[in-house]
Amino acid sequence: MRRVWCGCLCLALTSCGATKRYGDHPPVPVSGRVLVNGEPAKGVVLTFYHVGDWGSGSIVPQGWTDDGGHFEMATYGVKDGAPEGDYLVTAEWPSYIRAKEWGPDKLGAKYAKKESSGLKIHVDKGKNELPPIELKADEKTMKVADAAARDRKSTRRRGDDR
């Protein structure tokens, strides 16, 4: 009987732990839109860096923009959101992505470092629809990055790929 009781107790304790899947940092829905020079931008990568200490683990939500510039953040799973709190944000707009290789940043790395991007957001409890994130890009930098993407594509077609 004692073994049955111990087994039931262990099962109950294990089950209780499953409800705290995310520990003290459960995600809440976070979405928004990115505009570059006033226009929606497809393929911008946003990364949120929490301000403050969350202990030993690092939690870094990310999101990618679609054709309309819309994004939904993901932390632990697909589009699950981000934990509540204040964040420094980075934004990168690679001209192409091939496996782990990213092409030149169409934003010229202007927003690539959390310390200097100037982008900050706050995530509250509940659903968060953020105001548009407005980025500025130099036309020349965007053209150079696009040219690099075209060159990469033509090189790949010729079979000169690594």
Describe the model.
It is a single chain. The protein has one domain: Immunoglobulin-like, CATH 2.60.40. It is 23% helix and 29% strand. The protein is built from 2 helices and 13 strands. A hairpin with a 2-residue loop joins strand 2 and strand 3. It is elongated.
CATH class: Mainly Beta
- Number of separate structural domains: 1
> Into which percent range does the helicity of residues fall?
10-25%
CATH architecture call: Sandwich
Spans of at least 5 consecutive residues with low confidence:
4-19
Number of strands: 13
Major sheet attributes: 5 strands, mixed
Based on secondary structure, the structural category is alpha+beta
Q: What gyration radius follows from the Cα positions, in whole Å?
A: 21 Å
Strand content: 25-35%
- End-to-end distance: 66 Å
Overall pLDDT score = 85
The 3D shape can be described as elongated
**CATH domain topology:** Immunoglobulin-like
Number of discrete helical segments: 2
Write the layout of secondary structure elements.
Layout: H1 2-18, E1 27-28, E2 30-36, E3 39-40, E4 45-50, E5 62-64, E6 70-72, E7 82-83, E8 85-92, E9 97-98, E10 101-102, E11 119-123, E12 128-129, E13 133-135, H2 139-158
Parallel strand pairs: 2-12, 2-13
Antiparallel strand pairs: 1-7, 2-3, 2-6, 4-5, 4-8, 8-11, 9-10
